[in-house]
TrEMBL record:
Pfam families, alphabetized: HEAT_EZ (PF13513), TIP120 (PF08623), TPR_CAND1 (PF25782)
Domain TATA-binding protein interacting (TIP20) residue range list: 1038-1201
UniProt organism field: Amphibalanus amphitrite
Family (UniProt): Belongs to the CAND family.
GO biological process per UniProt: SCF complex assembly
Name of the protein this chain belongs to: Cullin-associated NEDD8-dissociated protein 1
Keyword Repeat found: yes
Gene3D superfamilies named among the record's database cross-references: Leucine-rich Repeat Variant (1.25.10.10)
Region (Disordered): 315-336
Keywords: Repeat, Ubl conjugation pathway
Length: 1228
């Protein structure tokens, strides 16, 4: 501290030196000191430093002045408020100085000070802003000096942008100072005034906002010159862009005036009008809806507004010269021609209309698409680029729409895709001309548009490849072409090759290949890498192995091999080029290896060398996998001996992608090269497998089991593994341990069952010994004590897989299991397992001949254990699948006669129906099952009705054409609410993620079932909402067209109904019960699903109304609405911004709520979770552009930061949000 007290005065003394270098060095040293966090200045030092820095702003040396400005940044956050005010006052006074240089440097300094002020409503920032604003308003009014005005307006815009909400008390004065400047004769003043107004409207009051709009409307309506009108319309557009969420209520007054001025014969005025319309469409999507037709008409009209150019003559000349006349455009250049600005504004407005109106997609293809295609001939490069962008926007909207609409359900008539398909020839014709243009920007736009077209309509250019080839050759072969042009062309060519049939390219390989080879040899590494990527795809195209082809690829093979080998050998090239060369060589060998026998000893060792390199090993493993999986069975013996130990070492690496790729390669090698592999070769890899057979990563475990299964098919290695004891002592223990994992299921479990089957069928282990090992955890008195209950099912499936290899083993095992089921001394866990094992065996084998089977299973229904009874139900249903004729009539009879077991027996019937995936398997029993189920549709037990509904739904999936109409008829015919509940629930089970024959039929009648959302009975409405939720989640196409009818009913069910709230007396206490809560919860769950699957069919503002109501509802519904708001902030930020004022209050209420001290622990936990979720919403809202300018949200954030508990929680959520975003970027 003492050294500092000497150091600072020393620097200040040097700053007064007559030597400019000394002043410069001293100022620089001071700046370094000020940037240190440790520096602390006393009051006197602060005063001296501030005075000296301000003095240096007037220094004669420009470099010293610049350093003084840089010092102000760290200085304002180090000194006290009094000194900051001194700085601000001095700078503001200097701004109106007679010295131009001092004015300029002071303006820069003032901007620096504003930028360095801490964000938020700090006392320092508030004080400084208020001092500045008075001076700025005075400077803006100085009409005598335009340069002062311009600087003041610039600083004011910065100030309002960062601290607009702190200056609310001064907004009226600011507006009063700004409005006269809109009449300034200087264009620059008017422009900067409009920018400042755009920032002001974000945080000003609603009254002031209205006053500004009224003033601008009054000025627009006056009779005046077009220049003034342009200014006011420009201001209206800026206000709409800056605070569109407030502008909507004024749109009806503003828009007709703007449209009227479009008719004026002034191109610049038309441009500003179209820009204003663009802002209205973008920022006020709901309010502008009635006017979209008018705006669209104006855009299409002005898109072709080019009165000074004759396109017909130009086209004739283009046809005559084939585009070689380079001086064509120059003949028509006219400095006074502003019509291109109108066309550009029309194209931009059109793009926004297309991007925000997905519901009008078909209309766009009818009217807009032909006009845009016709305008591809546009003569101005920038306008043409915007026309391309508009069409690309149309294609992207089509892609987004088709991603949520199943194309199988599209009507045979007119649709966006069919209309686009019809327009492809004219589109290609228009693009074909532009691909010959000299303009790089134009050709890049063409390739971007064509790429989007291919992604939307795969194979769209099949008949037009020949027309595109000259343009591709020109862009790749053009001398002095830019790197970006070549890269964009190569990206397009790759997309073209990957999304069209191979045979359409065969006539054009002669022309395409030389261009690609030249690109591979390009000195710029990015072009080389992209060209190799295209070359890899071309290899697949010229010799497709998945289809028969007569194309002679041999003339091209040598050239491709040579150029790829050159890049593969090179060591001093970019990493991306190395990887692409490896991939290309892998594809080449896998597709043409039978014709490259002589070259294999050269290229394969290079791949082996790349396999040893840490940087290229993953790419090489994938390339070798392509070669190993090739149907050509390429001879890889030259590298096999050295490669396998390396692959084994990869399984130890802590790199998941490398492990997965290596296991896939090992499996392909074992399957396709059985004659080349011995136990010694495989040993290094097999030694690493036990460590991978864990529940920590089931995908890796599954691939490891697949490798083991493949190895077991090899006679010599398998025998060696058994003889050495490696199989039993090393490999099998982790496998058996994995069987006990509660996580084992799905593909991993199926692969494990297959492995056990292979062990027996290949006679590696006898079935009896293997079964003994499998049964050890579930046999004996300690059965089930050390394993999870979920593992019973896994082990049972593995036991069944082993038994199915031998009828004798199956018979013995079933008898043994039945003894366990019968025995009263056997623990319940062991009996449960025995029933599950019998079930798994009975699914595949007819056990009707086993003595006492039926009686033993039925007797188990009498067990006291719920788990045993559930396993019994499952066993009866599964065993019935093995012999329907014997068991199904019996099960149906039991359902009718055994009322106590009815629920469990219905579960058995559900298993029978689920197992009978073949359409005709239940044909003979369908009527009996249907009648039986319908007799129990009105059961008073909800659980029974739910099982009946699931059975009905799954049965309907087998015979939809007959059973779905019967369900529909039953719904209309019944007066029973319970029957309606069951039928609607049954429909839910017919809606699955996978395509089903029922889908086409269901689409036409699901409206009848979902109409029960308006049913008078509460429970019927609830299950109807659940069914709607299921449809919206799994197959939104079923309900998209019904939403106009369903949504009002859905929203109606989200309202709190007082008549459904009742008080229940519980001893001395009264407890409030809301019978409508489950119904509202189902409604909000449905809304959340629709947000993801049918966003384009929602009126987002009506949707937000009900979300707002949910913010004040019960705990569960609040949590759902918080989730919805987070999604909405991302999906429709503008709409959320409009409602911000109404959303903040409920969030503040939640965060301020206190739980009573005598409340139970759960109440405290629920309140904490509510606060955390509410703060997540705040973080999401702050991510919306300009949301931080909202006064209420800013005040709420300040309130959060003033509370230590909320601040800590808020910081934690912000940190988590940032981490999640970073993780998503890493994944991408």
């Amino acid at each position: 501290m003492s050294s500092m007290s000497y150091h600072i005065p020393n620097l200040l003394d040097k700053m007064t030196s007559t030597d400019k270098d000394l002043r410069f060095m001293a100022t620089n040293d001071l700046m370094v000191e000020l940037q240190k966090d440790s520096i602390k200045l006393d009051d006197e030092s602060e005063r001296k430093v501030v005075r000296m820095i301000l003095k240096l702003l007037e220094d004669k040396n420009g470099e010293v002045q610049n350093l003084a400005v840089k010092c102000l940044g760290p200085l304002v956050v180090k000194v006290k408020e009094l000194q900051v005010e001194t700085i601000v006052d001095t700078l503001c006074n200097n701004m109106v100085s007679d010295k131009e240089q001092l004015r300029d440097i002071s303006s820069i300094a003032l901007k620096t000070v504003i930028n360095e002020l801490p964000p938020g409503a700090s006392l320092q920032a508030t004080s400084v802003c208020r001092r500045i604003i008075v001076q700025l308003c005075r400077a803006i009014s100085m009409t005598t000096d335009v340069s002062v005005q311009l600087e003041a307006l610039d600083i004011l815009a910065d100030l309002l942008s960062r601290f607009g909400s702190l200056l609310v008390n001064y907004h009226a004065n600011i507006l009063e100072a700004l409005l006269p400047q809109l009449c300034s004769p200087r264009l620059a003043v008017r422009k900067r005034t409009i920018i400042a107004l755009g920032h002001l409207v974000l945080s000003c009051s609603i009254d002031l906002y209205g006053k500004l709009i009224d003033h601008l409307l009054e000025c627009i309506q006056r009779k005046q010159d077009n220049s003034a009108t342009r200014t006011y319309i420009n201001a209206v557009a800026a206000i709409s862009r800056g605070a569109g969420h407030r502008f909507g209520e004024h749109l009806e007054r503003v828009l007709p005036l703007v449209v009227a001025h479009c008719q004026a014969d002034d191109d610049e005025l038309r441009e500003h009008c179209l820009q204003a319309l663009e802002a209205f469409v973008d920022k006020c999507p709901k309010e502008v809806t009635p006017h979209i037709g008018t705006i669209l008409g104006l855009c299409l009209r002005f898109l072709s507004h080019d009165p000074n150019y004759n396109y017909a003559v130009d086209e004739e000349e283009m046809d005559d010269t084939d585009g070689d006349d380079e001086d064509n455009e120059d003949d028509y250049s006219d400095d006074d021609d502003m019509s291109w600005k109108v066309r550009r504004a029309a194209a931009k407005c059109l793009e926004v209309v297309i991007a925000t109106r997905r519901e009008m997609l078909l209309e766009f293809y009818r009217t807009v698409s032909p006009e845009l295609i016709n305008r591809f001939k546009e003569r101005e490069e920038n306008v043409k680029a915007d026309i391309f962008h508009a069409y690309i926007s149309l294609l992207r909207q089509t892609k987004a729409s088709t991603s949520v609409v199943d194309t199988d359900f599209m009507d045979d008539g007119e649709s966006p895709l069919t209309t686009l398909q019809q327009q492809v020839p004219s589109l290609v014709k228009g693009i074909h001309r532009q691909l010959k243009e000299r303009s790089t920007k134009t050709r890049q736009g063409c390739f971007s548009l064509l790429r989007e077209l291919i992604l939307v309509l795969k194979g769209a250019l099949t008949d037009h490849i020949g027309m595109l080839m000259p343009g591709i050759q020109y862009s790749l072969g053009e001398r002095n072409a830019s790197s970006n042009m070549k890269i964009d062309t190569l990206v397009f060519v790759h997309c073209l090759l990957a999304n069209h049939p191979a045979e359409v390219f065969h006539p054009h390989v002669d022309r395409l290949l030389p261009c690609l080879v030249a690109a591979v040899n390009d000195p710029f590494y990015k072009i080389t890498a992209e060209a190799l990527h295209v070359l890899q795809e071309l290899v697949r195209v010229i010799r497709p192995l998945d289809t028969a082809s007569k194309f002679d690829f041999t003339p091209y093979m040598g050239e491709i091999y040579t150029v790829t080998l050159t890049k593969l050998r090179a060591a001093d090239i970019d990493q991306e080029v190395k990887e692409r060369a490896i991939g290309c060589m892998g594809q080449l060998v896998s597709q043409m290896g039978d014709h490259l026998q002589a070259q294999l000893p050269v290229c394969l060792p290079i791949l082996l060398d790349r396999l040893r390199n840490e940087i290229t090993r993953l790419t090489t493993v994938k390339a070798l996998t392509m070669i190993a999986a090739s149907p050509l069975k390429v001879d890889v013996r030259v590298i096999l001996g050295e490669a396998l130990p390396i692959l084994g070492s990869f399984l130890r690496k802590n790199q998941r992608a490398l492990k997965l790729a290596t296991l896939t390669l090992l499996d392909r090698l074992v399957v396709n090269y059985p004659g080349f592999l011995t136990a010694e070769l495989l040993q290094p890899a097999l030694t690493e497998l036990p460590a991978l057979l864990t529940e920590a990563d089931l995908h890796i475990a599954q691939l490891s089991l697949a490798v083991l299964s493949s190895v077991c098919h090899l006679a010599q290695p398998a025998a060696a593994l058994v003889q050495s004891g490696f199989m039993v002592k090393v490999l099998l223990p982790p496998v058996f341990k994995l069987t006990k994992s509660p996580l084992l299921q799905g593909a991993a479990l199926r692969t494990m069952s297959k492995f056990f089957t292979v062990l027996v069928t290949r006679e590696i282990l006898p079935a009896d010994r293997l079964l003994a090992m499998l049964l050890e955890p579930v046999s004996g008195d300690a059965a089930g004590q050390h394993i999870n209950k979920q593992a019973y099912s896994s082990i049972a499936q593995c036991v069944a897989a082993v038994c199915l290899t031998d009828a004798r083993v199956t018979e013995e095992m079933v008898r043994r299991l039945l003894r366990d089921i019968k025995s009263s001394s056997v623990p319940d866990a062991r009996r449960t397992f025995a029933l599950l094992a019998v079930a798994e065996i009975g699914r595949h084998v007819d056990l009707s001949g086993v003595e006492g089977l039926r009686q033993t299973i039925l007797a188990s229904f009498g067990s006291q254990s719920e788990e045993v009874k559930q396993a019994t139900s499952y066993a009866l249903g599964s065993v019935a699948c093995g012999n329907l004729a014997q068991f199904l009539p019996f099960v149906l009879n039991e359902i009718e006669t055994q009322h106590k077991r009815q629920y469990l027996l219905l579960h058995s019937l559900k298993e029978i129906i689920s197992c009978s995936s073949e359409r005709d398997s239940l044909q003979h029993y369908q009527e009996g099952i249907w009648d039986n189920l319908f007799r129990h549709c009105q059961s008073p037990e909800e659980g029974t009705r739910n099982v009946v509904a699931e059975c009905l739904g799954k049965l309907t999936l087998l015979h939809p054409e007959t059973l779905l109409p019967r369900l529909q008829s039953a719904l209309h015919a019944t007066d029973s609410p319970l029957m309606r509940t069951t039928i609607v629930t049954a429909i839910k089970f017919t809606i699955t993620e996978q395509p089903q024959p029922v889908d086409a039929l269901l689409r036409h009648c699901i409206g009848d079932f979902l109409a029960t959302i308006g049913d008078p009975q509460l429970e019927v409405r609830r299950v109807a909402l659940v069914a709607l939720n299921s449809a919206a989640h799994n197959k939104p196409v079923l309900v998209r067209d019904l939403l106009d009818t369903l949504l009002p009913q859905l929203y109606n069910e989200t309202k709190v109904r007082k008549e459904l709230i009742r008080e229940v007396e519980m001893g001395p206490f009264k407890h409030t019960v809301d019978d409508g809560l489950d119904l509202r919860k189902a409604g909000y769950e449905c809304m959340y699903t629709l947000l993801d699957s049918c966003l384009d069919r929602l009126d987002i503002y009506t949707f937000l109304n009900h979300v707002e109501e949910g913010l004040k509802d019960d705990y569960d519904i609040k949590m759902l609405t918080y989730l919805m708001l987070v999604r909405l902030a991302t999906l429709v930020p503008n709409a959320v911004l409009q409602r911000l004022d109404r959303l903040v209050d409920p969030l503040r209420t939640t965060c301020s709520a206190k739980v009573k001290q005598n409340s139970v622990k759960q109440e405290f936990e629920k309140q904490d979770e509510l606060k955390r979720s509410a703060l997540r919403v705040v973080v999401a809202l702050l991510a919306i552009p300009d949301a931080d300018k909202n006064l209420q949200l800013s005040e709420f954030v300040s309130h959060i930061k003033s509370s230590p508990d909320l601040q800590a929680l808020f910081d934690s959520i912000q940190h988590d949000s940032t981490s999640d975003s970073a993780a998503m970027m890493d994944l991408s």
